Amino acid sequence: MATILVVSEIRNGQLKKVNFEAYSAARQLADQLNGDVATVLIGSSVSGLSDIPGKYGVNKVLQVEDASLEKFSPDAYAAVAAEAARHLNADFVFMPATAMGKDLLPRVATLLNASTAQDVIHMRVEDSGVVYTRPMFAGKILADVKLTSTPQTATLRPKAFAIQENPVTAATEALSVSVPQAKAVVEEVTTSGGGKLDVTEADVVVSGGRGMKGPENWHLLEELAELLGGATGASRAVVDAGWRPHGEQVGQTGKTVSPTLYIAVGISGAIQHLAGMLSSKYIVAINKDPDAPIFKVADYGIVGDAMEVLPRLIEEIKKLKAES
Amino acid sequence: MNIAVCMKQTPDTEAQIKIADDGTHIQTDGIKWIINPYDEFAIEEALRITEKHGGEVTLISLGPASVEKTIREGLAMGAHKAIRIDAPESPADPQVVGAALAEVLKEGNYDLILFGKQAIDDDQSQVPSIVATLLDLPAVAVVVKLDIEDGKATALREIEGGHEKVTFSLPAVVSAQRGLNEPRYRSLKGIMAAKKKPIEVKQINLKENQLSVEKLSYPPEKKPGRIVGEGPDAVPELVRLLHEEAKVI
Known about the structure:
- The structure holds 2 protein chains of 2 kinds.
- By secondary structure, chain A is an alpha/beta fold.
- Chain A has helices at about 15-35, 75-90, 100-110, 220-230, 235-240, 270-275, 295, 305-324, and strands at about 5, 10, 15, 35-45, 60-65, 90-95, 115-120, 120-125, 130-135, 140-145, 150-155, 170-175, 185-190, 205-210, 230-235, 260-265, 280-285, 300-305.
- Helix content of chain A is about 30%, strand content about 30%.
- In chain A, the strands form 4 sheets. A 7-stranded parallel beta sheet of chain A has the order 7-11-6-1-4-5-12, with helices on both faces. A 5-stranded parallel beta sheet of chain A has the order 15-14-16-17-18.
- In chain A, helix 4 (about 220-230) links the parallel strand 14 and strand 15.
- By secondary structure, chain B is an alpha/beta fold.
- Chain B has a single domain (about 1-200), classed as Rossmann fold, CATH 3.40.50.
- Chain B is built from 6 helices and 13 strands.
- Chain B has helices spanning about 35-55, 70-75, 95-110, 125-135, 190-195, 235-245, and strands at about 1-5, 10, 35, 55-65, 80-85, 110-115, 140-150, 150-160, 160-170, 170-175, 200, 210-215, 225-230.
- In chain B, the strands form 2 sheets. In chain B, strands 9-8-7-10-6-1-4-5-11 form a 9-stranded mixed beta sheet, sandwiched between helices.
- In chain B, helix 3 packs across helix 4.
- Chain B is globular.
- Chains A and B meet through helix 2, helix 3, strand 7, strand 9 and strand 10 of A and helix 3, helix 4, strand 7, strand 8 and strand 9 of B.
- Strand 18 (about 300-305) of chain A pairs parallel with strand 13 of chain B.
């Protein structure tokens, strides 16, 4: 019987939504392999979160609590997660492919003499084992890879796996692990713009490019994003010009997003930008130039001046919301 | 300060990537090879640090002899010397790369080991974390600012929705994110000087791959969409389609 361990990501004492995606993906794989899903919660006070994973089919919740684990430290967390994997004799160890996960899981794998499939978007079971699909070359190529290590480890791309509720009663177990001293200490965490939703986490992304004419117009995108419950993104051109922070940049040298709806405003659609958003479920483009490459990938497009179209779009969506 | 920068030769970002007949590699004919763009930030940072604090920058790269052309470009930026770890091709398993680099890095007694945050070909973003674990060194990934003073370092790293400020002591491993600096252009003088700088070749027993590529494929083609109309008057129809057809608002 296979055991799949999901290392949960806890930020500000909360279990982020990406964890539910990972639990669901693990549950689906476990069902195909006749296995169990476990998770390890690492922090200074995690027991309050223990009844959440069971909702997504997690059979066992390991809790590792220690004051020194309050802040994320890759080396300390890696040692703890590796110990949890050993304790469970885990066959698979998964984590969401967030900034934390992509740094942490390869370390865990190193400690376990294992290897990692990073940023996986799909998993399937074949006779010879699990095949992981992951993007390469900024998404221009998909690679099917296999792992021969035990455990097999993989980080799962946010929003690539659907959240599925599958309630079971999870057994909880407190695990005591000797925590090594953290080598790099996180002194403080700053959020850009008061806890704004990150582009990689949003279901809707409203992104602006040079066609927005200037940073002073961004309030239009922010208003639209807020109406739709989403986040704002930016093209490389406007980040380079200093209009928007790098954390909002979508593209090959920025972030990769796959929201349900991506609205590209005043963005021409250079290959490097597309690399960051092509896997969005629906793409809307607003651009003055009918030949802009973005229209080739957009599901719906409007040829027009962003400054004229945006206010109308905001107005029409407000109307729609008022009616429903 | 003794600084090592681990760099990789990758295809240019504009390169048309085509799958080779064997289905597990890309076609390499006609590809323009460059220093992995994220590694350029690492090389630039190393040069700035040695310009400020004194010391030497050593480039380390894994691959066949053909990668030396790209290593020379790093030397042309100003790095002092280089080591090429001989390998028939770039291993698919980052653990293999990490183990080989760690073995060579151990011998060098470096104060700082810099990487780019990921290679733009396989996009793995694993090797810096692996090397840090193998060498038991503090490591900070995805760094946009780095300050070093008297064996202590402060880095600003990018996370979802913000930044983390991290402090650590040297020796340490750092991976560079875009925004850390603006890499310098290679001057003619630098290119000429690079020809005389040493590239030492090391033979290492490479670890066994535990990750293998079974098959490469192209992502599914996106179905063509449509232009709904022109100007603000097209908006009501767009909103209707998003609401009734796509059902996303």
